[in-house]
Amino acid sequence: MAEAYAYPTGLPAEGPGSAWLRANMVSTLDGAAQHDGRSQPISCAADMRIFGTLRALADVVIAGAETVRQEGYRPARAREAFAARRAAAGQGPAPAVAVVSGSLDLDFSLPLFTEPLVPTLVVTGSGAPADRIAAARKAGAEVVIAGEGARVDPARAVRELADRGLRRQLTEGGPRLLGQFVAAGVLDELCLTLSPMLTAGDAQRIAGGPGVTVPERFTLASLLEEDGFLFGRYRR
Questions:
Q1: Are strands 229-235 and 219-226 parallel, antiparallel or unpaired?
Q2: Which residues, including other chains, have CB under 8 Å from residue 52's CB and lie 6 or more apart?
Q3: What are phi and psi of 22, to 5 degrees?
Q4: Distance (Å, whole) CA 59 – CA 158
Q5: How many CB atoms are located within 10 Å of the residue 10 CB?
Q6: pLDDT by residue (tens digit) across 115-160?
Q7: Can you give the residue ranges of the Bacterial bifunctional deaminase-reductase C-terminal domain (predicted)?
Q8: What's the whole-model pTM score?
């Protein structure tokens, strides 16, 4: 599975194209990205295996603050099965987690910040509250400024993380953050699990926010199936 989901090789060491941003999302047949505010109810065991594999291949896992809160994010863990592969690629034992938040309204006493194998990053704008920046740093997090005012610029976030050597990037949403990456034109790949479930209701889609002027077409790179779930990979 690691070979099937391997990141592209030959990326330039710096500049445009030096990072590869991959998203991993799950959707029901009727377009819901979550049920009761969480993605787990529409997932399955095979989806979670792919989830673990994608994390094990990444340098950094990027998530929005609301997703971190709703999904109860913890530090990424080291996986023995991927230890040799990560070492050969010059990676640490586990990916860093980067939390995107303009306000830094985060609980810095949680294990995500106090117990990571590698320091958690918080990506924010230059206008973030100074006391919250200080609290993040006191907790051991690395603060990454990637925008003016309170807004995080998605393209700049990708560049800032790449400049820190975090070039194999994985975002797990949520929908608002993924929508920002799509609108900014910086998403390179989408790993989408299509769940054979129907939820109705008004749940979010996998990407939200302002639409793009012209729909961007991606190419199907691979398609797997298990128990009625489809696991597709689409590339720009």
A1: antiparallel
A2: 79
A3: -115, 140
A4: 12
A5: 5
A6: 999 999 999 999 999 999 999 999 999 999 999 998 999 999 999 9
A7: 20-221
A8: 0.93
What's the chain's length in residues?
236
Rounded CA Rg of the chain: 17
Q: Is residue 7 part of a domain?
A: no
In tens, the pLDDT along 43-58 reads 999 999 999 999 999 9
4 inside domain: no
* Domains of the chain: total: 1
Strand extents, DSSP E, 134-216: 142-145, 168-171, 189-195
Is residue 177 a part of any domain in this protein?
A: yes
We report the CATH number of the domain holding residue 69 as: 3.40.430.10
Residue 210 lies in a domain: yes
- What tens digit of pLDDT does each residue of 82-123 get? 999 999 999 999 999 999 999 999 999 999 999 999 999 999
Number of other CB atoms surrounding residue 234 within 10 Å: 18
